[in-house]
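Quick one:
INPUT:
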């Protein structure tokens, strides 16, 4: 029996691919589904003696201390979608909030023009978090559509982890009706 050489090569390639998929590749990296993240938005404020504000460092390379209210005005509970947009070297995180979050973002961006929205995140594997003050964009106009886009003080890989973790957290919260 004669087997055409092209058919044999094709069968061999299919067998190799099947074995590769069946055996899989074990790595030490965590699975994306185990990543979680939160996202907290704080409003810039003037220091006061009541203890309702704190000074935080933003931008790791050359930190800028910004005074913010101790309580965030918006958090991950109201996120409906998050993505990293742009290229490998120039990118941003784009976050979409639900109707309640959209209303808060519109209210705060209208009433606090020329103040900064300081963004904090904890992200990574459950119980192995990294945390960082990611950005401090200034409110220059009213944000009516519930979308906040900012350039994070993070690598592209970290931004991808933050977004993946944020989406996992959002999905889990919605599934459990956490709020």
């Amino acid at each position: 029996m004669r087997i055409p050489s092209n058919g044999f090569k094709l069968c061999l390639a299919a067998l190799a691919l099947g074995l590769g998929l069946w055996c899989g590749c074990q790595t030490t990296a965590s699975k994306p589904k185990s990543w979680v993240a939160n996202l907290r938005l704080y409003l810039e404020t003037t220091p006061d003696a009541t203890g309702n504000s704190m000074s935080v460092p933003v931008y790791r390379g050359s930190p800028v201390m910004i005074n913010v209210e101790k309580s965030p005005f918006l958090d991950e509970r109201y996120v409906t979608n998050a993505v990293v947009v742009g290229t490998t070297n120039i990118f941003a995180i784009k976050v979409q909030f639900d109707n309640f979050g959209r209303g808060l973002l519109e209210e705060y961006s209208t009433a606090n023009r020329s103040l900064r929205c300081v963004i904090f995140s904890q992200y990574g594997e459950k119980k192995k978090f990294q945390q960082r003050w990611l950005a401090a964009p200034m409110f220059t106009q009213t944000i009516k559509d519930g979308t906040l886009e900012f350039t994070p003080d993070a690598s592209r890989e970290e931004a991808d982890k933050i977004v993946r973790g944020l989406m996992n957290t959002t999905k889990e919260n919605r599934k459990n009706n956490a709020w």
